[in-house]
Amino acid sequence: MEPSPEQSPHHAYPDHWEADVVLRDGGTARIRPITTDDAERLVSFYEQVSDESKYYRFFAPYPRLSDRDVHRFTHHDYVDRVGLAVTIGGEFIGTVRYDRINDQGRPASAPADEAEVAFLVQDAHQGRGVASALLEHIAAVARERGIRRFAAEVLPANNKMIKVFRDAGYTQRRSFEDGSVHLTLDLEPTEKSLAVQRGREQRAEARSVQRLLAPGSVAVIGTGRTPGGVGRTVLRNLLAAGFTGRTYAVNRAFDEGLATLDGVPAHRSLGEIDEQVDLAVIAVPAHRVPEAVADCGEHGVQGLVVLSAGYAERGSAGRELQRELVRQARSYGMRIIGPNAFGIINTAESVRLNASLAPESPARGRIGLFTQSGAIGIALLSGLHRRGAGLSSFISAGNRADVSGNDFLQYSFEDQDTDVALLYLESLGNPRKFTRLARRTAAVKPVVVVKGARHSGTNPPGHAVPVSRIPDATVSALMRQAGVIRVDTVTEMVDAGLLLAGQSLPAGPRVAILGNSESLGLLTYDACLAEGLRPRPPIDLTTAASPQDFRDALAEALADSTCDAVIVTAIPWVGENGEAETGDGEVLAAALRGAAAGGPAKPVAVVHVEIGGLAEALAAASSTAAPRTRPTTLAAQPSGPPAAPAATEPATVEAAGTAEAEEGTEPPARPGRIPAYPAAERAVRALAEAVKYAQWRRQAATPGKVPEFLDETTDEPGAAALIDTLLGAAPDPRGRPLTHDEARELLGRYGIPVRPTLPAPDPETAVAAAARLGYPVALKTTAPHLRHRADLGGVRLDLADEDALRRAYGEFTELLGKPAELLPVVQSMAPRGVDTVVRASIDAAAGAILSFGLAGAPSELLGDTAHRLVPATDRDAAELIRSIKAAPVLFGWRGSAPVDTPALEELLLRLSRLVDDHPEVVSVALEPVVVAPQGLTVLGASVRLTPPPPRGDLGPRRLPNY
Predict the structure, then answer these.
(1) Which of 56-60, 372-376, 607-611, 928-932 shows the lowest mean pLDDT across its residues?
(2) Residues of 771-792 as b/e, b for ≥16 C-beta within 10 angstroms?
(3) pLDDT for res 132
(4) Is the dihedral of CA 442, 445, 446, 448 positive or negative?
(5) Could you point out which of 176, 237, 466, 873 has its C-alpha 20 to 30 Å from the C-alpha of 531?
(6) Going edge to edge, which strands form the sheet with 447-451?
(7) How far apart are CA 500 and CA 685, in angstroms?
(8) Residue whose C-alpha is closest to residue 362's, from 343, 388, 339
(9) For 18-125, where are the alpha helices, taking DSSP H only?
């Protein structure tokens, strides 16, 4: 008998379904299950829905909900009947509901795997992406409860709802029955549905940052009545920058008769302001922030910059205050920068926003800067300003309780005013998402990252984010895989940013060096070799060289087809009296700019020693490079006329006859400002990063693939069934390691054979095992403290007969201990080759990681292990093998025979596929893997299973809850 709604078992409230989401227009909302306490909210919500929307929902005029309707729509068992609501300010703006049905369309329970679904969105909030977000979340809930398909009946005139289903990316079927459109959606995520979901996420999160950086009006809450103080400083900086919108000073302590402050309207609360304020900068003590946030939320403020301190950086009590701040702001649909923030800057001519504590707004430029530290932000702003570089935008996020580096990447990807994104990060809240976003952004513009707190083992104060257990070297490798330029210091970040923002990308590693100092040229040459570049012998122009000589030499080097980049070295001229003459730096700068303008688009960098005015003159060439073509644009731009491109010197003029850009890459930018460096090593390091990034860009234009043979030679269903059996009906949440035979069987399902081992608890059993396997054999201990330690005597190889085996067994027990302690095994010998280690592991924050290195203590001590994210492509596997320092050993080092690297690449791909297909496989170690000139042999394998963890990258989009 099918259970009625009243008979279905009731499950506990599923709080893990609660989520904060960013809507299409950049505002936030909360999605949560509907409960029995929501009756009044539901009625109020329904009263605000138009008659037309009600008709589309119920297929008939339905002016009000009956008591029975209210009961039905608020009472759920959270299994067969589920309702979700989208709320802003605690009130419903949209709802969705599913009811499990059987083949006849009647109410049912499991194992029925289909449900009828229906949506209703308040008219005032239609077009904000509410229904799309609800569909993502209700689909994830349904999959969790064993529902595989949704059925929906939609009136043909309800085009908006039909479009929501059609655009979701799920496999669907449509038919026209009884005057309505019948839709069936398969809920298994597809490549298209994930692409749709991530595209919506990108546009929404980019828009949420854009709303913060380009407000039409700003209120500074906590503006002091007397000069000084944080709030008054921000107000002064807003006015000094020439903000194009409206500015208001707000302080509840203002006298009632005070009308203006520093020339802007002064108010005691936001309610006194006649218009809706877009952005509020909060500079009040922490205990007064909730009151200010509530005032902002009740009056429609879109976003907050919270400068106030006293939150998570103060310990556990402050961390809870910070969480409550985020919950409060998001309940009103607002995003937060901060708390404990330094502020934000947008130099666009149509905005000119300096809502920060920086006393001087930077010049307009093409660099976007995000930092999690106010002190580092100050240093970076100062360093960029000193070297003549301009910014497009700046965000100092403080404790980064809400808006994060991931949001900044979403914004930078689309921002046409930004050519280079610089990020100083102290924590990665979601490394898996960061690498995904960084890879996409790096495909169109450089992303340069400095990671602080690399070796502390904990998150910095104030950063309440999940702790990743992977080493910093692994994080660095994963960033490199995603195209991120990872540098160690903020100085290196500025050096690289200046080169990338003002110069085109190099076509290769060939570098020409020219200058008036032989010694400085040789230092530059050595630095190039140390960074893996291919320098040509330096051209010494001698100390008598004039600016025209520099111009001629640079023009010749740029025209040389065997040169990809040029480094110019310059020292002061020596006068006839033997005294150094700094000369006119502007004259030399003009000569270099003229040569760069007339030649092919190649990067140029200058290394100079105490030449007065040279760096400034080179920087003054152009504070902004010519805008580059972007694949997409923001849905909405700042109010006011579009910003005109900054005026540039002739160095940005296109030269005739320049070769077109390679297919799949953007056209090369013409030289703008030429970066100058006080040391050869710094210039070369920046150029080397540009070379590696350019190579990654060229490779990323044609991404790798997962070979088709994996589909033909893997048994995914068989492996899934085996995993279910091994975990059992009630698996231990801590998981379990597999035995040798269990691991062999599971790996065999993916075409990874493991050479069998037989236990040898005594000499007679060892001899019998060797006879079964065939001589020669190896005798090995499997005791944890001796495993894989041939150097400690735990492995005896090439035992050719019974006598040799018995002798080895006796030496084992005499030197190392009793058989019960050693747990010895016998294994047939493998062909000689290079011993390697292949591993895969799951990090809670970063996801599945594939690792490779040579076996043995030296590789472990030196950390010579390479890493790639799963799923790995054929290119990832090839790069993984070649990226370790000891890679030459695999390719015929010192006359040895090269090993079968294609077989090794195939093994890596098979293991990657296994852990990607089955999230229950949380750890695999293949050690050793002996790679011979022909083929390879896996001699040892350990596997650990746990119940499947949640796959956050496949779930519905949501903001993190820190």
Answers:
(1) 607-611
(2) eebeeebbbbbbbeebebebee
(3) 95
(4) negative
(5) 873
(6) 353-356, 343-346, 391-396, 364-371, 420-425, 447-451, 485-487
(7) 12
(8) 388
(9) 39-47, 51-58, 67-74
Alpha carbon 740 to chain centroid distance? 37
Please name which of 450, 420, 941 lies closest in space to residue 690, comparing C-alpha atoms. Answer: 420
With a CB cutoff of 8 Å and minimum separation 6, the contacts of 768 are none
Q: Strand, coil or helix: what is 730? A: coil
Residues 537, 521: Cα–Cα separation, whole Å = 9
Element (H, E) at 606: strand 604-608
Over residues 138-162, mean pLDDT = 93
Return d(Cα 20, Cα 931) in angstroms, integer: 50
- Average pLDDT score over residue span 228-253: 94
**Is the pLDDT confidence value at 402 over 60?**
yes
Place of tokens 């890459």: 665
Q: Are the beta carbons of 592 and 552 closer than 8 angstroms?
A: no
Q: Of 452, 446, 439, nearest to 478 (Cα)?
A: 439
- What single-letter amino acid sits at 912? S
> What distance in Å separates the CA atoms of residue 449 and residue 463, rounded to the nearest whole number?
18
Residue 512 has φ and ψ, to the nearest 5°, of -95, 140
Region of 126 (left: φ > 0; alpha: ψ -120 to 50; beta: rest) is beta
Omega of the bond leading into 776 within 30 degrees of 0 (cis): yes
**Rounded to an integer, what distance in angstroms lies between the CA atom of residue 448 and that of residue 470?**
21
Place of tokens 């007065």: 612
C-alpha 950 chain-centroid distance? 19
What DSSP string describes 877-937? Answer: HHHHHHTSTTGGGGGTGGGPPP--HHHHHHHHHHHHHHHHH-TTEEEEEEEEEEE-SS-EE
**Sequence letter at residue 212:** L
* pLDDT tens readout for residues 788-823: 666 667 788 889 999 999 998 988 888 888 888 888
Residue 714 has pLDDT above 60, yes or no: yes
Out of 5-9, 664-668, 946-950, the most confident range is 946-950
Give the separation between CA 325 and CA 305, rounded to whole angstroms.
12
Cα 380–388–305 angle (5° rounding)?
40
The pairing of beta strand 420-425 with beta strand 364-371: parallel
Contacts of 557 (CB under 8 A, 6+ apart): 512, 514, 539, 563, 566
Both tokens assigned to 775: 């001589």
pTM of the model: 0.84
Which amino acid type is present at position 736? R
Residues 6+ apart with CB under 8 A from 300: 276, 277
How far is the C-alpha of 530 from the C-alpha of 568, rounded, in Å?
Answer: 18
Lookup result for tokens 């999230």: 919
**DSSP character string of 295-308:** HHHHTT--EEEE--
CA distance 356 to 240: 12
Q: Which two tokens stand for residue 523?
A: 């230092």
- Give Cα 166 to chain centroid, integer Å: 29
Q: Among 827, 835, 767, which residue's Cα sits nearest to residue 801?
A: 767
* Out of 565-579, 713-727, 912-926, least confident range: 565-579
Amino acid at 383: G
Separation between Cα atoms, residue 949 and residue 733, nearest integer Å? 10
Q: Kind and range of the H or E element at 376? A: helix 374-386
197 membership: H or E segment, kind and range: helix 191-213
Give the span between the Cα atoms of 492 and 686, in whole angstroms. Answer: 7
**Length of the chain measured in residues:** 962
Q: Looking only at Cα atoms, what is the longest distance across the chain?
A: 109
The span from the CA of 93 to the CA of 95, in Å, is: 7
Backbone angles phi, psi at 257, to 5 degrees: -85, -5
Of 841, 836, 834, 822, residue with least CA distance to 911: 841
Collapsing DSSP to helix, strand or coil, 162 comes out as helix
